[in-house]
Amino acid sequence: MIPRGARVAVSFFFALLGIVSGVWAARIPTVKQSLHLSDGQLSLGLLAVAVGLVIGMQFAGRITDRLGSARVVVPAGVTCALAMIPPGFAPNLAVLIVTLFLWGLLNASLDVAMNTHAVEVERAYGRPLMSSFHGMFSAGGLLGAGAGALFAWLGVSPGLTFAAVTVPLAVLAVLARRALLPSAPSHHEDGPRRRVRWHGKVLFMGAMAFAGLVGEGAAGDWSAVYLHEDLGTGTGLAAIGFAVFSTTMTVGRFAGDRLAMRFGPVRLVRWSGLLAAIGLGGALLAAHPVAAMAGFGLFGFGLSTLVPQVFSAAGNHDPARAGEAIAQVATLGYAGLMLGPVIIGGAAEVVGLPLALGIPVLLCLFMSLSAVSLRPTAFTK
What we know:
By secondary structure, the protein is mainly alpha-helical. The chain is 82% helix and 0% strand. It has 14 helices and no strands. The chain has helices spanning 4-34, 39-67, 69-82, 85-89, 93-125, 130-153, 158-175, 200-230, 235-286, 289-304, 306-317, 322-351, 353-356, 358-369. The two termini are 23 Å apart. 54% of the residues are buried. It comes from Nonomuraea recticatena. InterPro entries: MFS (IPR011701), MFS_dom (IPR020846), MFS_trans_sf (IPR036259), MFS_Transporter (IPR051788). This is MFS transporter. Residues 6-381 form the Major facilitator superfamily (MFS) profile domain.
């Protein structure tokens, strides 16, 4: 029997994390203004999220494997949602940093547990599903950002905004428990459990995730700057560039499972990486606003399937230790998301932004050439 309820439940947890992340992103300016923070002080709060993510990843994988993903994903989802409320009521920078660090820890737990359970649902279906799960995260991010913008327009405080959005999500997370697969804790027949070590295939998949998420971070932080400062567009038109990228990435993720089923992960990643490189490279070479937006659209569509395929391959590398493998790959991937924009910004100071944006182009080509490392799993070609 195909566990359709489990697929819906896992999709919900991906959407939950996207919604919470999106509503936070939309209310950052108000939090900054209400606490009278400088850009540097705000960056400390954002850094706290990143530190919490990285530290949380080191424990989330082992806990998920030890207890089973179904036993972790629900409490992680509930607490990750509710942990977004305290930052909205933080009275000063110190409290904001502590609460955002805690949210980062819980974010990591949910991320690992839901991706691990997603791999289990994929196996039960016998076909690729990971791309559409990540598509739900992208769609949730757009929904959360829209909700945050609406509450901001209505003049609702960040704390009440977060409570209004996350409390219902926490309730739904509890209700989703019944639909999850009855995943059991992992036990090994060949002696005591050992950690997945940082070498070989897991490390290489982490490098691929790093490469893919550098591209996502570059689009988020630098696409509008490139359109406005290098191509001379207005700020409103420049913002459309990232909207185009986000839209094609979301559409591509929902189409990704069928593409993976038809072509297999190796060919899909090979051609997707090439398409992403052509899209961003074309946007840089054309140096025209319309061509650049079209290029960002291709860039988003190409990137959309890359990271989900890597996460799926990591989870299937050693099913008994799927949580640890996903946690390690995610750690390197999110390092790319956080460090990529900084690296590009530093390079832009030396060679200019158009040439600096060539870095993600090269990394997309690296992913294309590395696609063979994803071959194959039980449901892939």
